[in-house]
Amino acid sequence: MGRPEWHFQAAVDRRGRPSTARRSSRVDIPQSSKLNIIRLNHRWGEVTIPLVGRVRFRWTRPLAGISPGCPGRITGARLIKKTLGWHVCFRIEEPAIEVTPNPGPPVGIDRGVVHTMAISDGQMLDMPRLLGPGKERRLQALERKAARQQLARKRGEQRSKRQERTYHQIAAMRAQQARRREDWLNKITTQIAKSHGVVAVEDLNVAGMTRSARGTVEQPGVNVRAKARLNRSILGMAWGKSGRMLVYKCEAHGSVLVKVNARNSSIECARCGHVSCTNRIDQTIFQCEICAHTANADTNAAQVVLQRGLTALSGATPGCGGTAREARVTAPQREPHAQAATGRRTSIHHAGATSSGEESHRLRVGATLLRAPPTAKGGDHT
Ligand SMILES: [Zn+2]
Question: With 90 as the cut, is the pLDDT of residue 195 above it?
Answer without folding.
Answer: yes
